[in-house]
Amino acid sequence: MDRKKDSREKEQVKKPRRLNTLSKRKKEMASIRRKRRELIKEGKIKPQQPQTLETKRIKDDSFVDFKNDEEAVEEIKNDEYSAYYKGREPKIIVTSTIAAHSNTKKFAYLLSRIFYNAQYFERKQSTMHKIINYAKRNDYTDIIVCNDNHKECTDLYIIHMPCGPSFHFKLFNLMKPKDIKGHVTVSTWHVPCECLTTGFQTRLGVMVARQLNALFSQKPNFKGRRVVTFHSQRDFIFFRHHIYQFDEAKDNFDRAKGPVKCLIDELGPRFILKLRSIQRGTMNTVNPEYIYFRNIDKSNPDDTSKSKFML
Asked: Taking every annotated instance into account, which residue ranges of this chain make up the domain Brix (predicted)?
């Protein structure tokens, strides 16, 4: 019995020692963090930043420096999309593949409502050659084709008229407006919509961004208050569709933030695009000439590197 009592007394003595050592370590770490914050404020050391794929991104000659590279900026301003930034209005045909599922047709019709001055045409048995010739005769600027697989839209083709280029995107993670929690509906579809493109940093990325911007009217002072965002991150292009409105601040809490507050609601849909290829001219399936074609070569470290992106 005496031995058991002695062992219990020893355990009771050891516990406060452990607590004391832990509290000392916490105090030491807190003082180290406090000194580090003071040094950062004084500018003697730099704050640590989390290492992500964006911070580790490999920059090559394809990056566009809009501030210093004047030649690249002039080339971009005088490309095939320059007329749309000078006031030309887009005129778009939106259609689907032959014998498309009803889900794909509904999605194509929804796209025709999002893009300004776009019309949905049911494909029926019309060939792409026939559609392209019809678009040239009637001064259409772009053709958007929705392709499906397994009863869902999986590919998106954008053909710039009259001389190209043609873009092929893989489409996935499609969420319809009814599947988005808290989505709203509006009646101002006929009013021009704003377009924001972010995250496009290379020559190829700027080309894709200018094509996406050319699908929307470039007129200022929009009244519809709708905005579409194409955000490029790690070569994935995220699509979002919102509507915003401005309200005057009603209480002191809102006035402290500003005289006017902005409310944003999502309209939908949501989806993600992945660039597969860019082809010169209109769509040619016989002898295509590619500007860019996504073909992963596992023996090439540039293709398998996780820190190198094309857009």
From this structure: 90-284
Q: Report yes or no on 40 lying in a domain.
A: no
Query: Which H or E run includes 144?
Result: strand 142-149
Q: What are φ and ψ of residue 302, in 5° steps? A: -65, -35
Q: What is the pLDDT of residues 91-138, one digit of tens each?
A: 999 999 988 899 999 999 999 988 878 899 988 888 888 999 999 999
3-state secondary structure at position 27: helix
Q: 224: burial class by Cβ within 10 Å (0-12, 13-18, 19+)? A: middle
- CA separation for the pair 115, 216 (Å, rounded): 6
Average pLDDT (171-192) is 82
Q: Which domain holds residue 104?
A: 70-304
Q: Supply the DSSP symbol for 69.
A: -
Q: Hey, is 196 helix, strand or coil? A: strand
Distance CA 181, CA 203 (A): 37
**pLDDT tens digits along 255-304:** 565 666 778 888 879 999 999 999 988 887 778 888 888 776 666 666 66
How far apart are the C-alpha atoms of 50 and 197, rounded to whole Å? 25
Looking at residue 133, which CATH number applies to its domain?
A: 3.40.50.10480
Query: Distance between CA atoms of 201 and 54, rounded to whole angstroms?
Result: 12
Residue 38: its pLDDT value, please?
Answer: 85
Domain count, the chain: 1
Mean pLDDT value of segment 147-168: 90
Contact, 265 vs 184, CB < 8 A?
yes
Query: Looking at the domain assignment, is residue 49 inside a domain?
Result: no
How many CA atoms, within 13 angstroms, populate the side-chain half-sphere of residue 30? 6
Distance between CA atoms of residues 295 and 13, nearest Å: 68
Round to whole Å and give the CA distance between 82 and 301.
36
Decide if 60 is inside a domain. no
Residue 155's H or E segment, with its range, is: strand 152-160
Residue 94 lies in a domain: yes
